[in-house]
Here is the input.
Amino acid sequence: MNENPDPLKELEAMKKVAEALNDLDEGSIRRVLNWVSDHFSIKNNNIAMTAAAVAGENDEPELDNKKAEEVYEDVAELYAVAQPGSDADKALVVAYWMQIHEGAQSIDTQSVNTQLKHMGHGIGNVTRAFENLKKTRPQMIVQLRKSGTSKQARKTFKVTTEGKKYVEQLLRNGSTY
Here is the structure.
């Protein structure tokens, strides 16, 4: 690899690629980009962007929830595509599924932890994962209510718009569709 890239050569290459992809459908564009990535041994999570993003039609593509429901049959499939790394990300992906795809009005940590255990991806401390998500700025999850007065009282949460965007970014990065 050249350590001093020539920006004009890069621009010319980008122009040729854009022209070559211009008349292809989204699936074809994905296959071409994946081939390029494999052929040149490039690891790039952004290759899974939508065709609109590749064509420059949208700076920040949104994942269409109806399409996602058709693509991901269950939480395990969505989880596999998202490939969450941290415990907080794992909890957020499952909470996203429960809220967006199952229509849950609120999420509790026990339900998320149970789902993760069923999938074989249990986490050490789900409460801590949710607390970390609450501490992020912008917040990925907000607490809706707490029932009981003890430290172990049941809390319910909701995935925020920022949390949704984050999970959708994980899905775009991990998707091969």
